[in-house]
Specification:
This protein has 248 residues and is of the alpha/beta class. It is 27% helix and 30% strand. The protein has a single domain, classed as Carbon-nitrogen hydrolase (Nitrilase/N-carbamoyl-D-aminoacid amidohydrolase, 4-Layer Sandwich), CATH 3.60.110. It has six helices and 14 strands. α1 runs parallel beside α3. It starts with a strand and ends with a strand.
């Protein structure tokens, strides 16, 4: 399987973010990728503020207009496509991720279980978490998701171990670069990934947001592939957009 981990740019224009994602899918497909993975909330950035009047418009129904566009491209280019999306269902919001199939279907949907994607005072009737940890079988093996803070929850790690997926898709938001990424975060992520027992495919978006929004959705990118034994076999350092292509 040839995997493309895409560190996509995020700006305040959702249409521009979607166009960048489509361009990166095409770029990866041109380079014979079978699977393209994007970061957490890649359409908008994780810029929710715990104010429903601001946050609910950021959400996308699944399926909905944005996923319809992505599904059509996945079908056209015959690729698997994993991406994090702020999901709106009625008047509720979830931090979700989907795996789209080459036949143009939603093959797997996951809602983040760990709640720290929003503040403690956020209205629980609006800001919701999932409970299910599903997996899907494919010709490349089985896939499951965790999202960002999920990987730091021991109960969820044990649930992944019990589920025994071959591949763990891990969209996240990374805020550290340079020496701190290399010496602190990268080894920590690798160790946490090892605990799941699955080969982990992780990527973060890179935000180009105004200063007033950086605390909400700032991210500096970064991507890596961690084998089930904790070995990092390839990575894309934070600080730039691009696609990490790895044959697995």
């Amino acid at each position: 399987m040839r995997v493309g981990l895409a560190v996509s740019p995020v700006v305040t224009d959702m249409d521009a973010n979607l166009m960048a994602i489509l361009n990166m899918v095409n770029e990866a497909a041109d380079d014979h990728a079978d699977l393209v993975v994007f970061g957490e909330s890649a359409l908008t950035g994780l810029i929710n503020s715990d104010d429903p009047s601001h946050d609910l418009p950021l959400g996308q129904p699944i399926p909905g207009p944005a996923t319809d566009v992505l599904l059509a491209l996945a079908r056209k280019r015959r690729v698997w496509l994993a991406i994090g999306i702020l999901e709106r269902e009625g008047k509720t919001l979830y931090d979700s991720a989907v795996l789209l199939t080459p036949s143009g279907e939603v093959g797997l949907k996951y809602r983040r279980i760990q709640p720290q994607w929003h503040g403690r005072s956020a209205d629980p009737s609006v800001y919701r978490q999932g409970t299910n940890l599903p997996k899907v079988e494919t010709s490349f093996g089985s896939f499951a998701f965790l999202i960002c803070g999920d990987l730091w929850d021991y109960e969820l790690i044990q649930r992944v171990r019990d589920l025994q997926p071959d591949w763990l898709l891990y969209p996240f938001v990374n805020s550290l670069a340079g020496e701190r990424w290399e010496k602190e975060l990268k080894p920590s992520y690798a160790q946490r990934a090892k605990l799941t027992g699955a080969t982990t495919l992780m990527t973060s978006y890179l935000a180009d947001l105004p200063p007033e929004d950086m605390d909400l959705g700032g991210a500096v990118g970064g991507a890596m592939v961690v084998l089930s034994d904790g070995m990092v076999i390839d990575s894309l350092p934070p600080g730039r957009t691009g696609i990490l292509l790895v044959d697995l």
